[in-house]
Write a structure and sequence with these properties.
By secondary structure, the protein is mostly beta strands. Helix content is 0%, strand content 57%. Strand 7 and strand 8 form a beta hairpin.
Length: 81
């Protein structure tokens, strides 16, 4: 899954490697790698202001990330399939 920032300068991607990556589209380089999921990351989204991200994983969690710190703010659990 991939999401584009509102200003078009960054992208967020989720992968089979269980990470979420924030990319600089001008340079093509990774800005940040978010780790914490224990399953494939299937869906990602960026907040309109670009400060937070959401990721949903095969580990049955949704994580809310602070992109300033690279840390998970909340881990939402409850999905069973």
């Amino acid at each position: 899954s991939v999401a584009l920032s509102a200003d078009g300068t960054r992208a967020l991607s989720g992968s089979f490697d269980q990470t979420v990556r924030l990319w600089d589209l001008g340079t093509g380089k990774t800005i940040q790698t978010l780790k914490g999921h224990t399953g494939t990351v299937r869906s990602v989204a960026l907040s309109a202001d670009g400060t937070r991200a959401l990721s949903a994983s095969a580990d049955s969690t949704v994580r809310l990330w602070n992109l300033g710190t690279g840390k998970a703010i909340h881990t939402l659990k409850g999905h069973t399939s």
